[in-house]
Amino acid sequence: MIDSSPFRLSVCIYVALTGRKLFPLVLLILVGCSVQDAAPKTSLFEDDHAVPLHWPTDVADISVKLRERLSAPEANAQLLAEIEDLVAWTAEVAADTNLPEADWLPLYQATESMTANLRSAKGVMTPQNKTQLEALCKLIDEAARKIPERPAHLVKDES
What we know:
By secondary structure, this protein is mostly helical. 60% of the residues lie in helices and 0% in strands. The chain has 6 helices and no strands.
């Protein structure tokens, strides 16, 4: 089957430029020249970039995903790359929450340190890095419990 979108566009341009035949012009006005996708878009940005499958849903999910990868029997290159990604995304994901800055700052500092250590290990999971990752998971869990459900300025004073 021929892709009709270039054909349809050329017909639209032809009719608009030549002014021939009133019926195609009326049809063009009623139907339009737009090309519709098979599935409607859910976001204006979905064509901008692909979201990795291991992208966390929230702060607590980061520690879950890190622990899953730490418990794997063998650390391959993909697993280590995903661990590096999760660590690097931690501060960003936490910053998108209502976590107070005083609780966010230790997460940021821990992830910066962990990222530097993982990169210096050059694709090897050292015992020191594994211990530091486990400590980071605990810090993430503590921070996740401190995230208020609603921003303070939206909470109605009930006194």
